[in-house]
Model the fold of this input.
Amino acid sequence: MDILEVILLIVGIVIFIGSFLLPAGRSDAGRIDTDAAKQEIHGLIEEEMKTVRAQVQDKVEETSEDVVEKAERSLERLTNEKIMAVNEYSDTVLQEIHKNHEEAMFLYDMLNNKHANIKDTVSKVDKAVKAAEDKVKAIDDTPTVKTEETEKVIPADEPAKTEEAVSPEIGFMGETAEEGQNNNEKILEMHRQGKSTVAIARELGLGVGEVKLVIDLYKA
Done:
């Protein structure tokens, strides 16, 4: 109900009450006090105004409550949307952090494996080099003694027999005289090409000391 309707209703009530009071006042003018009638009308109007004020107040409060409720719903919806957006963003960030952590751990494990493999390879190479050096040293020591003994036995005026003495040394390692001669020629040819003693021994399947002995005898 609007305020205008309430006012019109009050005016209608006043007119209705006045229609009863005025005729009575004309017939009994001496008994009715005009001031009393005015006070009564004023009291009725005040009561109606109070009723109207109460209705207006209730309407305002109801409207205010509706507005507040709507505002709260809007704020709640907006808050929920913001919270969901923050949660989604935080989930994305956490997933990226977890992914980067897994990648870092994978790289770390790979580096550890590479480091372990390198250490193992270096250790094996060191052992192989040491073993090869020991073998070369042992072979180098043995032919030196034999060469000195051969030089003492063979006279200086018979150089042709020196070559014959070399062949038995090579044949002692399981080769025939012909195979030893072929290997000697191959060793000398590869030595002229600039290949190292280890490379020659590896290609021909011979010992490093044997190859070194042939080269030393050739140089002598």
